[in-house]
Every structure is written in C-alpha cells, then in structure tokens.
Write a structure and sequence with these properties.
The chain is mainly β. The strands form three sheets. A three-stranded antiparallel β-sheet has the order 1-2-3. It has a three-stranded antiparallel β-sheet with strand order 4-9-5, with no helix packed on it. Strands 6-7-8 form a three-stranded antiparallel β-sheet, with no helix packed on it. The chain is 13% helix and 35% strand. The longest helix has 20 residues, at 64-83. Strand 7 and strand 8 form a beta hairpin. The chain has one helix spanning 64-83, and strands spanning 16-21, 47-52, 58-62, 90-93, 102-103, 109-117, 120-127, 132-138, 142-147.
C-alpha cells in the first residue's frame, strides 16, 4: 500500500502505509531507532505494518491470523459504510444502471449486470442471500437506488 490509498490521519493528511511479510515493517533510517525487542518477542512469522503520518511513524506487527481478522473487520466496515442509506434515494434510468448499484427498498438487491436490447434493459439482480434473477425494464424506467458506486469502480 502507499499514501495514494485514501488513508488519512485525524486532520485529513495522507498517511503512507507499508505492509511487509516476515516481520516488522522496515523503518525509515532517518527516523528514531526502535526499542530493542525482548528475546523471542518477534517470531519470524509476523506481518509488519508501518504508518507514516506527518507527525511521525508507527510500527506494528501481528500474526497472520490477526492480520486476517483485521482484514475481515476492515471489509465488514467498508461494506457497512457502502451499504448505509444515503440521505435520500437516487433515481436513475434503467439504461444507466451499473454493476454494484443497490436498489432502494427493504431487501438488499445489487445490480450484477445490465444489458440493453433496443429499448429494453435486462438487469440481473443479486439478493443479499446470494440469489440472482433477471428483470426487463424500459430503458427510461426510473429505478430508485439506495447507493450508487462511483464511476469506474
């Protein structure tokens, strides 16, 4: 990872993030020396994490299992954030639906694909339970969305 990831500190400044396998993240030689580790405190099968905000440097390490747990929590938080309802639904024409758009309603329905055939749009939806189905709409039919992913995603 690098500082272009969109990770920022509390003041909105970009934070460079470096992840390494096999031990603590490499430190900046110009930075402060790390504290001497206790014997056997850093086994070779660790993941190194270095965060470099403008105010200094943070070095962490964890086991692969802890890294997986962190990744799962980050993924859960990302999905929860993306699936949070907006202040108001967005309405788009069926012909402009994109993969990842989420239909407004009681149940989660996400666009898997949308194919235009003349004046008809065939939209394949996927439910939160993983079921898929296809519905046909007029290309100019208004579809209310709870969430719309940014262009190009």
């Amino acid at each position: 990872m690098s500082s272009g990831t969109g990770i920022t500190d509390a003041d909105g400044h970009p934070v460079a993030v470096t992840i390494t396998a096999g031990g603590p993240a490499p430190r900046d030689p110009a930075g402060p020396a790390p504290a001497a580790p206790a014997e056997d405190s850093d086994p070779p099968s660790r993941i190194g994490i270095r965060l470099t905000p403008p105010t200094g440097e943070l070095l962490w390490s964890c086991t692969p299992e802890a890294a997986r747990e962190l990744a799962a929590e980050l993924l859960r938080a990302a999905e929860e954030t993306e699936n949070a309802p907006a202040g108001h639904p967005v309405t788009v024409e069926a012909g402009r639906l994109r993969r990842g758009d989420v239909r407004d309603g009681d149940r989660a329905m996400t666009v898997e694909s949308a194919r235009t055939d003349g004046s008809t749009v065939h939209v394949t939806w996927k439910s939160g339970a993983g079921r898929t189905w296809t519905q046909a709409y007029a290309a100019d039919a208004a579809i209310a969305l709870k969430r719309r992913l940014p262009e190009g995603r």
